[in-house]
Amino acid sequence: MSVIEISHITKDYGKGRGVFDVSFSVNQGEVLGFLGPNGAGKTTTIRQLMGFMKPDSGKLSIMGMDCFKNTEKIQKSVGYLPGEIAFIDSMNGMEFIRFVAKMKKMKGLGRAEELMEMFELNASGRLKKMSKGMKQKIGIVCAFMDPEADIMILDEPTSGLDPLMQNRFVELILSEKKQGKTILMSSHMFEEIERTCDRAAIIRSGRLAAVEEIEKLKEGRQKVIEVTFKESPMAEEFAAAFPRAVYQPGGKIVTVKVGKNLDAFIKKAGEYTVTDFNVRTQSLEEFFMHFYGEGADK
Fold first, then answer.
1. Is 187 in the same domain as 266?
2. SS3 category, 167
3. Which pTM was predicted?
């Protein structure tokens, strides 16, 4: 059952900016990653979902409600973290959290204390003096503190967080997922998308490039293997066997992207004297750029 429906929306700002004929849905209990570079249209799409702007054409709905006609009801029932949070600088962190709880018509502060402890947040300081990371933690608390919110819409949620807090956020998403929450999360942090999401919707230049299962994306990734040979003629001969190998003439290092045919690669390398061998899995970012980057069909 689809909880979030985006159907053929277009918002054209001119000069190729905006989103064009974008359609995808988020099912109940699903975590869907919304991926794309800065300026691709992620925030424009999310702002339309929250009713802050109306599409030129197409429709958006949450729980069957039109996002523009039922903005107030949707905003009260959805946990939302904007990409740019509009803080009231005269407030301190706790005052702002209470202000948001009041706007949501919550009784008390819900899970705020638990979340502040999880993210090691002291919210007593003035907002205008807080770092980007501290403000982001305030935003996360505000988005997740209502225990009755079953739908989360998050725009670049880990922006400004250090690696430790990014991991805490992943833990939070996995916990919410176990409880059956429906989550749409835009990000360019492919590791957190890989760890948390069921599917990914990929947008580039305002157009949807693909919607894929995360497991399928993982299976399609290649290994990036860097082999160092004892002598440069060995490296040159080995590189000649792999048309897409990266090799500097006269050097001893060859870098090759290898898919499922890893056995043949290893056997070929075994014909030479190898002095070093490094393997890493192609990142999802590299995978997306390969299939959906400038050289890919739109």
1. no
2. helix
3. 0.83
Helices 163-178 and 132-144 pack at an angle, to 10 degrees, of: 10
Q: Check whether residue 152 and residue 274 sit in a common domain.
A: no
- Separation CA 79–CA 154 (nearest Å): 8
Choose among 7, 104, 120, 118: nearest CA to 57: 7
3-state SS assignment for residue 46: helix
Interval 158-202: pLDDT, tens: 999 999 999 999 999 999 999 999 999 998 777 788 889 999 999
CB atoms within 10 A of CB 186: 25
Q: How far is CA 140 from CA 89, 112, 144, 153, in A?
A: 17, 10, 6, 11
Sequence-ordered list of residues with C-beta below 8 angstroms from that of 83, at least 6 positions apart, any chain: 43, 46, 155, 156, 159, 186
Pick from 79, 113, 73: nearest CA to 93: 113
**Residue 122 half-sphere exposure, CB side, CA atoms within 13 Å?**
5
Let me know if residue 159 belongs to a domain: yes
74 and 167 together in one domain: yes
Residues 72-127 have pLDDT tens digits of: 999 888 999 999 888 988 999 999 999 999 988 899 999 999 999 999 999 999 99
